[in-house]
Amino acid sequence: MRKTFAFVSFLGLFCLSVSAHAGEEPVILGQFDDWNAFSVQEEGGKACYMSSAPIKSVGKYTRRDDSFLTVTHRPHHNTFDVVSFEAGFTIRKGSKPTLKVDRKKTMTMIPVGGFAWLKEEADDRKMVADMRLGGKAVLNSQSARGTKITDTFSLKGFSRAYRAIQEACGRDK
Fold first, then answer.
1. What is the H or E stretch that residue 148 is in?
2. Cα separation, 60 vs 147, whole angstroms
3. Looking at residue 53, which CATH number applies to its domain?
4. What CA–CA distance (Å, rounded) separates 173 from 170?
5. Which of 5, 17, 159, 166 has its CA 20 to 30 A from that of 31?
6. Is the Cβ–Cβ distance between 98 and 139 less than 8 Å?
7. Using an 8 Å Cβ cutoff, are 165 and 37 in contact?
C-alpha cells in the first residue's frame, strides 16, 4: 500500500511540475515489479524516466516525504542514464550521499536541497550498468538535522523498465 501511495504521490508531483512547463501529463510505459517507467512531453522534446520507492528505510526520523530513485533520458538535451535521488527531506549541506549496488563500488552523489545526483556522466552509465545486473541498491544520506538514513531499493524489474525507457527515448530516437 505504501508503495502504491508513494508512486501516486510521485506521479502527481511530477505531473504538476511538468504540466506547468509543457501542459502534458506523463504516459505510463509500464510497471515492472518494483520499477515504473514513464514518458512525458517536455518543452523541447520527449523525456523518459523510471523510478522506484525504497523497499526499506532505516533512520531515526519522525517525518519524511516520499523518496525515489530515478533514471532519466532526455534525448532533446542529449542526456541519458541520469541517476537521481529524491530524498523526501532536505539533505544536509556539505554531506556526501552515497549509492552502492550489491558489492560494487560506492559512488558519491552531489546533494542539492532534497535531491542528489551522481557527479559525472560516466558514473551514471556505470551505475545503470551495475543496477541492470544487481539485486539491490543502498543509498546512504543525511538530513539537514543530521539524521543518518539508509534507503534500500529493490532492483527487481529494473532491466525491463530500462528497456521501456530506451525504446521510448533511446539514443536512436
1. strand 148-154
2. 7
3. 2.60.40.1880
4. 6
5. 17
6. yes
7. yes
Q: How long a stretch of residues is the chain?
A: 173
Instruction: Output the nine-digit C-alpha cell for 34.
Output: 518494483
Task: For CA atoms 154, 133, 82, 40, give the dihedral sign.
Answer: negative
Cell of 157: 524489474
Contact 48/72 with Cβ under 8 angstroms? Answer: yes
β-bridge partners, 151: 57, 139
Angle at alpha carbon of residue 86, lines to 84 and 87, rounded to 5°: 125
All 3 cell numbers of residue 150?
Answer: 539508509
pLDDT per position as a tens digit, 76-123: 999 999 999 999 999 999 999 999 999 899 999 999 999 999 999 999
Write down the residue that cell numbers 524516466 correspond to.
49
What number of other Cβ atoms are within 10 A of residue 50's Cβ? 26
User: Domain limits at 120?
Assistant: 2-169
pTM above 0.90, yes or no: no
Contact 169, 29 (CB under 8 A): no
Distance, CA of 82 to CA of 171 (rounded, Å): 13
Greatest Cα-to-Cα distance within the chain, rounded to the nearest angstrom = 45
